[in-house]
Amino acid sequence: MRELVVRESDFAGANELHAFLQQELGFPSHYGRNLSALNDCLGDICTPTRIVVVGPPNRAGDWQEGFRRVFARQALENPYLDVTLSEGHFSR
Questions:
Q1: Are 35 and 66 in contact (CB under 8 A)?
Q2: What is the pTM of this model?
């Protein structure tokens, strides 16, 4: 199973996180870097993939919530996708 840890504190904003996800998850070059495109691309994942999203306890910014909603929705809809939404620290 492929695993990706997304530490929200590593990203200054949505554009940086979109670029990271595009690279790490192999999204196509025409990926639109918006939440609708993210939803579509996560829905297209067809190999077992685990995404762990780690955010600070006191997140500030609506952009993180938007990503979390999309991750949570696709975790329910795509059987190949396992998503863990966490606050605090994640270590392997």
A1: yes
A2: 0.89
